[in-house]
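Archive entry: two folds, one per protein. Generate the first.
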Amino acid sequence: MNTKEFYYHLPPSLIAQTPPERRELSRLMLLDKDTGAARHEAFANFADYLNPGDCLVLNDTRVIPARLCGVKEDTGAAIEFLLLRRIAGDVWEVMAKPGKRVKPGARVVFGDGELVGEVTEAAADGNRLVKFEYAGIFQNVLEKLGEMPLPPYITEKQSDRERYQTVYSRSEGSVAAPTAGLHFTNAMLDGIRSKGVKTAFLTLHVGQGTFLPVKTDIVEQHKMHAEFYTVDEAAANAVNETRQNGGSVIAVGTTSARTLETAAGEDGRVRAGFGWTDIFIYPPYRFRAVDRLLTNFHLPESTLLMLVSALAGRENVLNAYGEAVREGYRFFSFGDCMLIG
């Protein structure tokens, strides 16, 4: 399958630069994955499309202020680090910009010297391993000096960090938010539970793959970066009981969908566990654990658009995206969303 088959035209004016005034004020497109029929709704009415006995699965990862801007200790050259994952102790894998300036042995200073990173190793993919030096607690230093690593298509400065976090975020470790969850408020989730719908939480820490485009012409040749996930017994049991009793499992976001599909066996039963996943979902793919998907609108030719197409069909999805463009939907991280089912 050719990557260009997942292209669509998006006017830049439709890329949402800021979140809506209130989380629940997004628009919601309802897409029938069998017929391709699309309807338009307000996200505030999302609960109307859930049934008692269903299970809503949410990713509780929390974004860390992973973008650090500093200078080389010896030359004063500007250097930016994006923290990707903790390797061990104070050693992190980072994406460095410009990478050619930070070879092993280079030291980068942040703030007034409150944080210093020394490059210990250059990885094969161009990333760097960095050992940090600081006084006190690393998370406190990071909160002071770090910035939210917003995607490159968001160019406006954000005044409220929490609007790039879900209201249920709790497990720190992501460099990007699971954006389908940004639409929920605590009141909405309470209302969903009062309707008899289960909520289950799992964790997938979103990594650098979120920022990387598909560079291969052939979809199957693309390699996903591994991301760490956890599914506990409570979440696995909630999903399995829902399927056993005839309810629908609704994944909130592609991260929740990828985690469920990683943890599911061929029989669709989800196993509790943790580890690294590099699952790449594209057509044709048979979903084992996910029945329906709530997701934002994704970039052209992206792995996320390919996953959505695997669930609803490429033509159905591209037709729906075309309608969303004509209707003036807001796209990407701070944009509107789609419920596929």
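Generate the second and append.
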Amino acid sequence: MRKSNTQNISELLLNYIDEMNIERKLKEVDIIHAWEEVLGKTIHRYTGKIYITRGVLNVQIFSPVVKSELIMMREEIRVRLNEKAGREIITEIRFL
């Protein structure tokens, strides 16, 4: 009789993520997807490209008025997005 070497799929995936060091990248993707949830549909309508480079969240905003408001709320937004990710991923936000 052979020994069974079964493992839980979630355990295998977590081990793979740890071994490949991709947890940070997955958290970055979560932050980008959380933008609408955190800031709402109205702000999301004025948002273009969103990407993260070396801990800096770059967000394209189409309205100068919305951009001004977001600049004033930049730190609060950064904190809320990092809370959503569960750890410090974003160090700065730039509005383009």
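Annotation attached to the second fold: Residues 18 and 36 are 28 Å apart (CA to CA). The mean pLDDT is 89.
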